[in-house]
Amino acid sequence: MSKSLKIGVVGLGNVGWNLVHRLDSKGYDVQQIVAKKNDHRKKLAKTLDADLIKSVSELDKKLDLIFLCIPDDQLQETASSIDSKSALIHCSGSTSLLDKELSGVFYPFQTFTKFFAAEWKGVPIFIEGNDKALRDMLLKIANNLSGNANEVSFEQRQAIHMSGVFGANFVNHILFLAKSILDEKNIDFAVLEPLLEETVRKAFEHSPAGSQTGPARRGDNQMISKHLELLKNAGNLSEYYKMFSDDISSTYKKS
Fold first, then answer.
1. Would you say 142 and 28 are in contact if contact means Cβ atoms under 8 Å apart?
2. Domain 6-152 shares a fold with domain 156-252
């Protein structure tokens, strides 16, 4: 298959917004977009030629692919309401193939924010499909969008998704907590940037275990006690600090 595919996209949340723009920038023919909110529709109308519609009932039955960029708990119901033989492709990390004649998964392993163009180059995109021709088609699209297409099983995709929650979602929340500590003393959040960049670089070059540092790693209980004292009136921060410190200590106590 080629870029002459007729494509529809359902949903303009974080993933849908970025996927639509990436497909368009790579020359794919996105013909219809289901967007229920008027502000989304107005912004897209200024940049894309696609037909903006409000309901899946308006989708053209001649579309080759329909990407479902909607919450997991809406996928099967939405798929069941689409009366066409178009291949239905969802972008979820933890939902199995839909119960349709042609069903696939197109899971870009990246963090997306609506109205903010994400970096796609090199992003792993994980593919599944209940038909070989469909899988090959999705792999080709994924390679065009990022250059990093991968065919995986449902079990592998679930593990990948879970690792992303730990490695990105939870880490981002920890950064939010770190920023709150700095904000309390009027310190610029940017002071953390070199430290974070070096931490990530070492984790991928030497492994997370090989680059772990800090009071808990070296068994500095006196420093841990000082920090806990400073955090005694900081709500859940002291609990989080102790939990992570205990886990790090337990992990490396034999090394």
1. no
2. no
Tokens of 35: 């967007």
Span 195-231, pLDDT tens digits = 999 999 999 999 999 999 999 999 999 999 999 999 9
* Residue 52 near residue 30 (C-beta atoms within 8 A): no
* CATH (residue range 156-252): 1.10.1040.20
Determine the pLDDT at residue 253: 84
| Cα–Cα distance measured from residue 107 to residue 127, given in angstroms and rounded to the nearest whole number | 6
* pLDDT band, very low/low/confident/very high, at 41 (cuts 50, 70, 90): low
For 35-124, list the strands marked E by DSSP: 51-53, 65-68, 87-90, 103-108
Contacts of 122 (CB under 8 A, 6+ apart): 146, 147, 148
List the structure tokens of 71.
């919450």
- Give the CATH architecture of domain 6-152: 3-Layer(aba) Sandwich (3.40)
